[in-house]
Each structure stands twice: as structure tokens, then as C-alpha cells.
């Protein structure tokens, strides 16, 4: 079994990104809005801030109280939309329950939506880019995957998720590369039978160690997108014991996470480069 080292790959991309920013004499600006005191969110924002400074991106953090009104959040985003020093805007999730995340995110100018959430955004979600990078690292030639999940001898890609918000755009990206991908939601009763036939399983369910060894086909490639806390330690959606059955596994931490951060910064760089042009 081979570990897909996302941290090592992210460092390589980060060096190239820092070089490109310096070569193009850019000083991109990223605005991050953090609402409330969620411990995990604060950790994520700190990681993004450190990485941004390493590559030469100006990091602007806006920490807002958890009881802030939606109107005030929207007003802040609208000001950032018109700020020429800001090339990218992200809202750190999750938000307090009284706020509507869809309406808030929709306020972001598509040209500055470096998370790739807004309709009409010019950017691919950093998390989706991270998954594709790990699949490439696993030497899985996506473009050569033949359509037809039921055909014997063909690689089968399954996205196991809790909702279509993450899964649908990723499915579209994979299909653009010639693959036919099946989405299974954990609320569906028949997802287990489909998973056991999959050569590639991408897991994003938000539940620690949800996927057990018996649920996985021997020799499969597993991409774990989940990040949870279990006994006060980071834990993925996949039980680490699956490593005895799989060919490739992305760990948590150190798999999808570091790549998601660096691809976010790459999107900021592309936004800044577009403005310069």
C-alpha cells in the first residue's frame, strides 16, 4: 500500500507558485472572512495565512463576532468586491446557524470567488483540484478510463458523499476527462454494494472513520476528503485500517488538506494575473 503524500506534493507546487508570483512582480491579495470562534476554522485560517505569506500573497483576515447580522457580512463582501487590492475572497465555513451560507457566498464577485462556489466563477474548487492531483499522483490515467461502470475489467470511480454540493462538480470534472463517475450518497441504502466494486473511491461524508475495510474492494485507490476531530485528534472519513486492503490511500492529515490550501492560493495568483492583463 502506498501513501499519497499531499503535503510533499503541495510543497512542490508552492515553490513553483512563489516563483511565478515573484517573476510576474505581483502582490495578490486574499481576503478571508472568519465568523465566530469555531476552533477548527481558526486552525484552517492560520494554515492559509502562513502559506499565503510564504508564496508572497497579502493576507487580509476579517474576524467577525458569531452574532453578526447577515446584512453586515454582505456589506463587507460588497466592499471587498470593489477593493482593487483584493483578488480573492473566501468565507471560512461553517457559519453560525442564523446566517445563510448560500446567500452570503453568492454575494462574492465571480471574478474573486477563488473557492469556486459562485455560479459563473472562473475557478475550479481547490478541494476538487486536490483530488485530481492525488489521483494523478497515484498514476491513475483518468482520461483512459472507459465509460461503463458495469463493464468487467474497467476502473470504476465512486464518489461517496453526504450531499451533491461537493460531489456533482467533481463528477463533472472527471467526466470531462473521459470518465463515467457514479455518485452515492450515504442516505441511500444501496451505496455499500456499489462501493465494493469500485477501483477508485472518493470519500466526503464528514464522519470520522465512516468507511471500514470490509466496505472496500481489495487493491482500490482511496481519496479521503474528510477532516474531523476524533478524541481531540484529526481524523479522516476513512478508517486507517483500510490500508491493509488498498493500493493507494490519502492520509488525514497530510493528504487532501495541504493541496487544497495551495490550490486556493494558486487561484488567487491566477485572479491577480488576470487583473494585471
Entry keywords:
11 strands, 2 domains, Rossmann fold, 277 residues, six-stranded parallel sheet, alpha/beta, three-stranded parallel sheet
Write up what this structure looks like.
- The protein starts with a strand and ends with a helix.
- The protein has helices at residues 6-23, 39-55, 70-81, 101-105, 126-137, 164-176, 191-195, 256-276, and strands at 2-3, 29-35, 58-64, 88-91, 157-161, 181-185, 200-204, 221-224, 228-230, 233-235, 248-249.
- The longest helix is centred in the C-terminal third of the chain and has 21 residues, at 256-276.
- It has two domains: 25-110, Leucine Dehydrogenase, chain A, domain 1 (Rossmann fold, 3-Layer(aba) Sandwich); 126-256, NAD(P)-binding Rossmann-like Domain (Rossmann fold), CATH 3.40.50.
- The chain is an alpha/beta fold.
- Helix content is 37%, strand content 17%.
Amino acid at each position: 500500500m502506498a501513501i499519497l503524500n499531499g503535503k510533499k506534493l503541495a510543497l512542490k507546487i508552492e515553490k513553483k507558485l512563489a516563483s511565478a508570483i515573484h517573476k510576474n512582480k505581483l502582490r495578490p491579495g486574499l481576503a478571508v472572512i472568519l465568523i465566530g470562534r469555531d476552533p477548527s476554522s481558526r486552525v484552517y485560517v492560520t494554515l492559509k495565512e502562513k502559506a499565503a505569506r510564504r508564496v508572497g500573497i497579502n493576507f487580509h483576515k476579517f474576524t467577525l463576532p458569531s452574532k453578526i447580522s447577515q446584512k453586515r457580512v454582505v456589506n463587507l463582501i460588497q466592499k471587498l468586491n470593489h477593493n482593487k487590492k483584493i483578488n480573492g475572497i473566501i468565507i471560512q465555513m461553517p457559519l453560525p446557524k442564523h446566517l445563510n451560507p448560500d446567500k452570503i457566498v453568492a454575494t462574492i464577485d465571480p471574478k474573486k470567488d477563488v473557492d469556486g462556489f459562485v455560479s459563473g466563477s472562473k475557478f475550479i474548487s481547490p478541494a476538487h483540484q486536490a483530488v485530481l492531483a492525488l489521483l494523478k499522483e497515484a498514476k491513475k490515467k483518468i482520461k483512459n478510463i472507459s465509460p461503463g461502470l458495469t463493464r468487467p475489467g474497467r476502473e470504476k470511480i465512486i464518489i461517496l458523499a453526504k450531499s451533491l454540493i461537493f460531489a456533482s462538480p467533481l463528477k463533472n470534472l472527471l467526466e470531462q476527462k473521459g470518465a463515467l463517475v457514479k455518485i452515492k450518497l450515504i442516505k441511500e441504502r444501496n451505496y455499500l454494494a456499489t462501493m465494493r466494486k469500485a477501483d477508485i473511491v472518493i470519500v466526503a461524508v464528514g464522519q470520522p472513520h465512516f468507511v471500514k475495510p470490509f466496505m472496500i474492494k481489495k487493491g482500490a485507490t482511496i481519496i479521503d476528503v474528510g477532516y474531523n476531530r476524533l478524541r481531540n485528534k484529526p481524523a479522516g472519513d476513512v478508517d486507517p485500517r483500510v490500508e491493509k486492503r488498498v493500493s493507494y490511500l490519502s492520509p488525514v492529515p497530510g493528504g487532501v488538506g495541504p493541496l487544497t490550501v495551495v490550490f486556493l492560493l494558486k487561484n488567487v495568483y491566477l485572479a491577480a494575473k488576470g487583473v494585471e492583463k
